C-alpha cells in the first residue's frame, strides 16, 4: 500500500479502532488515545491534507514480505 492509498483508507475509517488497525498494518506507531483523537477530529470535520500527511509522516517502509 502506498502513502496515497493509506491516506484514502484513513479517510474511510469508521472508528478509532479502524484507524489503529490501519496504522498497525502499515507500520505507523499510534496509541489508542491518538487514534481516538484523530477519529474525533475526522468526525467533526474533514482533516486537511496537511493534517493527514502529519499522521502518515511516520511511514517509512513501503515494502511487504
Verbal overview:
This protein is mainly α and 65 residues long. It has one domain. It is built from four helices and no strands. α2 (16-25) packs across α3. The radius of gyration is 11 Å and the shape is globular.
Unreliable residue stretches: 59-65
What integer is the average pLDDT? Answer: 77
* Number of contiguous helices: 4
Largest sheet: none
* Strands, count: 0
Domain count: the total is 1
Strand content: under 5%
Radius of gyration: 11 Å
Global structural class: mainly alpha
Helix content: 55-70%
**Anisotropy-based shape:** globular
End-to-end Cα distance, whole Å, is 12 Å
What is the H-and-E element order? HHHH
Keywords:
single chain, 65 residues, mainly alpha, 4 helices, 62% helix, disordered C terminus
Quick recap:
By secondary structure, the protein is an all-alpha fold.
Amino acid at each position: 500500500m502506498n502513502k496515497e492509498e493509506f491516506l484514502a483508507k484513513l479517510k474511510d475509517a469508521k472508528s478509532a479502532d479502524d484507524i489503529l488497525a490501519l496504522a498497525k498494518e502499515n507500520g505507523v506507531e499510534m496509541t489508542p488515545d491518538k487514534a481516538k483523537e484523530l477519529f474525533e477530529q475526522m468526525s467533526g470535520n474533514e482533516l486537511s491534507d496537511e493534517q493527514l500527511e502529519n499522521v502518515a509522516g511516520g511511514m517509512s517502509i513501503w515494502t511487504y514480505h
